[in-house]
User: What shape does this take?
Amino acid sequence: MTDTADRVVVVTGGSRGIGRAICTALSAPGTVVYFNYSSNAEAAKATTEAIQAAGGKAFSQPVDVATPDAVNAWLGGIVKEAGRIDILVNNAGITRDGLLVRMKESDWDAVVDINLKGAFNCMKAVAKPMMKQRYGRIINITSVVGAAGNPGQANYVAAKAGIIGLTKAVAKELASRNITVNAVAPGYINTDMTNDLADKAKDAMIGQIPLARIGTPEDVAGTVAFLASSAADYITGQVIHVSGGMYM
Ligand code: NAP
Assistant: This one.
């Protein structure tokens, strides 16, 4: 499925979980994968090794996606160095869960700034170079809860629903330049983000999944690789759910 050889790929939040699986799935001989992370350099090293094992070249650095100046410096530097950015995957995300009445303003701001504004910052920075080269594949990671809602996650759900709207608006803006913009909505995926759930809560969650298992980062990465490939050249503005049927 992956025909990303010789492509210049950018993945945000590539150090762990779904981001690492995406970096690996998009790697092939000749691919150059740039990824960022928040602070976990040790985890980033493992992603670098996975990219190299798949035949790609890897470059990584800590960059806060919520900070426009840092994003512009990072992505501007890549365009200077590599000459182009073909594929952008906006994957970086955090949760700060709590019921609305108890949610701190700082938890709202952090989640919206990283999960939604982070994607805006990165898309804005790559849009001009992609328009110039008349090619681009942008894939935004939203969530099943962005479509279905979830109690205790008002900030996260608002940001993920925002990603869906952002994806559709920018897909319409950039289509004439051969740039596609799509979203992938994972369900319940086994990563550090979901590790904290108690066994009872995990079992309850699995009970809501028709395919009756927790998803893997590779389940999500396969769909991202499809959207980045030429097999998806005629797909834009879409949201593909990878949730074992949790939301239909
Ligand atoms: P994860 O294991 O917690 O990894 C999060 C990644 O984002 C890490 O690489 C982290 O870097 C990076 N990151 C966090 N804040 C950042 C910032 N300000 N700037 C740049 N990078 C930052 O999460 P995951 O489960 O793989 O989730 C990946 C994406 O999928 C997220 O957008 C998440 O909302 C979405 N998603 C996940 C699930 C699920 O069940 N896991 C379901 C639906 C959607 P460090 O390693 O340095 O902290």
Residues 12-19, 36-40, 43, 64-66, 91-94, 114, 141, 143, 186, 188-189, 191-194 surround NAP (CB under 6 Å). The domain at 8-242 is CATH 3.40.50.720 (Rossmann fold).
